[in-house]
Amino acid sequence: MSESSQPAAPASKYCRESRVFKTGRVFPNDINNHQTLFGGKLMSNIDEVASISAMRHCRCNVVTASTDSVDFLSPIRPTDSFCFESFVSWTGRTSIEVFVKVIAENLYSGERAVAATSFLTFVAIDPDGKPAPVPAVIPETDEEKLISDLAEERSELRKVRRAASKKLAAQLITTKYWE
User: Which of 46, 98, 112, 136 could connect to 12 by a Cys-Cys bridge, CB 3.0–4.6 Å?
Assistant: First the structure.
């Protein structure tokens, strides 16, 4: 398909149009041996809310392309609730960066703290399974602008990291270790 025959990118959307909130509570089956929320449960929820933000933004299917990081900043304890907040912070032609903030709240004292942050990238997929153009994103609040300001730099770092991962993967063996 030539450049001129590619579908046009949809109209821009505001970050708020993709915002997702999800609140949960820590239960005994959610904790690890340190008596804090199991990191895998947190990461699963991060991917879930981020994918909803991405789909709200492009209104089509998406696939997770990368998770830049999940930075665990403070523990989430059984006395806490946790609130995930996500929104689209940047877009490329077919890629969508989503920022996720996790706030822990002590249910007895009301004290709140940012417990984790994460950036994930999704690719929009059309009905034929091909990458689809996505709307640009418009930050409005100070927090949205803060997050969006460094997005292109994060995108470039992702490209470098992905190339390094591909180079490493090409050198890894795939034979069964017992053969």
Answer: 136
Query: Residue 90: left if φ>0, alpha if ψ -120 to 50, beta else—which one?
Result: beta
Question: Looking at the whole model, is its pTM more than 0.70?
Answer: yes
**Coil, strand, or helix at residue 114?**
strand
Query: Is residue 122 classed as helix, strand or coil in its secondary structure?
Result: strand
For 80-110, the three-class secondary structure string (H helix, E strand, C coil) is EEEEEEEEEEEECCCEEEEEEEEEEEECCCC
What value does the mean pLDDT take over residues 105-128?
97
Domain for residue 153, yes or no? yes
- Asked whether residue 147 is domain-assigned, the answer is yes
Q: Which helix (H) or strand (E) holds 168?
A: helix 151-171
Q: How many alpha carbons fall within 13 Å on the CB side of residue 13?
A: 22
What is the per-residue pLDDT for 50?
A: 98
- Cβ proximity of 98 and 85 under 8 Å: no
For the chain, what is the domain count? 1
